[in-house]
Amino acid sequence: MAADTQTPNARRSLFIGDVQGCGDELDLILDRATARFGEECVFHFVGDLVNRGPYSMRVLERVRKLADAGRAHCVLGNHEINLITQAFGLREAGERDTIHEILGSQEADDWLDWLRALPLVESAELSGCPFAMVHAAVHPDWDLETLAREARRVEARLGSEERDDAYALLATPSDRAPAGSERDVLGRITTCRSVLGDEWSSALPEGDWVPWHTQWSKRHYPYGIVYGHWSLQGLHVAEGLRGLDTGCVHHGRNRDGYLTAWVPELATTSWPFDTPDTAFWRVRGYRRYYPL
Ligand SMILES: [Mn+2]
């Protein structure tokens, strides 16, 4: 995606966590932002727009309209990858999947191609500071340039004009893909939570496995990361890191869930990824969306 360099007078940016079909809560945030900052503010979505919640199609339609107007950037999440994989007949529908509305629609093909063309990484600048937005994680050894290069390698196949290229990419499950292959990189960026050396896993950290960002933080990179995917961890505010999945779609399953937006102040003097940071909006889930 094109760089979106901000100056103090630039358009206001909001980063929004995993929506997963929670259309009512999303509408509240988008409408509030537009009332506060005007029609020019830009929304960045960490992926997982769809699935589990009730209004996946409505969410896609609203985000696409904003994207067409240059007001939304979105990276792919594992639920979008699952949707594409199901559309290709490479994956069975799960019990809690609510994406049949999209897969069964007359526009299913069009949505499939639109989703395939979304990036895995948005890298841009915020108040002059470089950042990357991904759904789940990056390899702790990747600087910003390596991350962008690795993502482009996957995007070229997933978003290829030839659907067969995307099909071939997704035909191998990521846990059986060779380390460093496009399928492995796709799995890491969209599902990883813990790492052990060069290995990654979507499982929670346990034993010698540590959160991916623990390793990443030790490297003190000069870029920030905005991500989602880890609702059990909740809002994650640490130096250089903003984790925004606060489990709106899981509301009422033994805990409260929220849709979170990070609304960084535009300042010229400080790094927007400093701590502490209280620039968050959160909307509690309106109801429980699926059984315990
Ligand atoms: Mn996810």
What features would you describe in this structure?
- By secondary structure, this protein is of the alpha/beta class.
- It has helices spanning 23-37, 56-68, 78-87, 100-103, 108-116, 144-158, 163-171, 182-191, 212-217; strands spanning 13-16, 42-45, 72-74, 122-126, 129-133, 194-196, 199-201, 210-211, 224-227, 236-238, 241-243, 258-262, 280-284.
- It has a single domain (13-284), classed as Metallo-dependent phosphatases (Purple Acid Phosphatase, chain A, domain 2, 4-Layer Sandwich), CATH 3.60.21.
- The strands form three sheets. A five-stranded mixed beta sheet has the order 3-2-1-12-13.
- The radius of gyration is 18 Å and the shape is globular.
- The structure holds manganese (II) ion.
- Residues 18, 48, 77-79, 135, 229 line the site of manganese (II) ion.
* SS strand fraction: 15-25%
CATH class: Alpha Beta
Count up the domains. Answer: 1
Q: What is the total tally of β strands?
A: 13
Find the CATH superfamily. Answer: Metallo-dependent phosphatases
* Termini gap: 39 Å
What's the Cα radius of gyration? 18 Å
Helical content band: 25-40%
SSE ordering = EHEHEHHHEEHHHEEEHEEEEE
The tally of helices reads: 9
CATH topology: Purple Acid Phosphatase, chain A, domain 2
Strand order of the largest sheet: 3-2-1-12-13
Low-confidence stretches: 1-9
Q: Write the CATH architecture name.
A: 4-Layer Sandwich
Shape: globular
Pick out its properties.
single chain; 292 residues; alpha/beta; Purple Acid Phosphatase, chain A, domain 2; five-stranded mixed sheet; 9 helices; 13 strands; 31% helix; binds manganese (II) ion
